[in-house]
Amino acid sequence: MRFELAEAMAILARTPGVLRAMLGGLDQRWVASNYGPDTFSPFDVLGHLIHGEKTDWIPRARAILAHGAAQPFEPFDRYAMYAANRGRPIAELLDEFESLRAASLDALRALHLTDSDLDRPGLHPALGPVTMRQLLAMWPVHDLNHIAQICKAMAWQYGDEVGPWRAYVSILPREEAAPKNAKPTH
Fold this sequence. Notes:
The chain is mainly alpha-helical. 56% of the residues lie in helices and 4% in strands. It contains eight helices and two strands.
């Protein structure tokens, strides 16, 4: 499927509602548990998405428009959410993400990007040359990836309880790699 900005924005606009429906009002055990060492909990994912709204997508789009590939993007701290969100309630994070995403979409609309703007080059500090189109295509894919990650973290919490049905679901590892009671990360 070819990238279309309006279609990407339709996905981006839905993410806050999806996360609110999935996580709002849930017991802390659901939102704070991960699926093993070095994995994100739903709480962590939401914090990561918030950090991205502040430092990644729109700032990088503006950097492409201002500097092209002459100046690399600021590096993104994938783990900044640990310190930034410690002790905050999930409801507060959901509200913040919804507000930030609405502002990001308004900012994206205000850029009035043309097809030639979408082909403009940028420079990722680790990946090298990228285009505006690639950056903006990655944004909804990033959302969808993290929604899947939230689903995985939540599914693992009942991984030891589903018995033989484990064979029917790809979100859980097969018996030989069954979860060993993943623990909350905060």
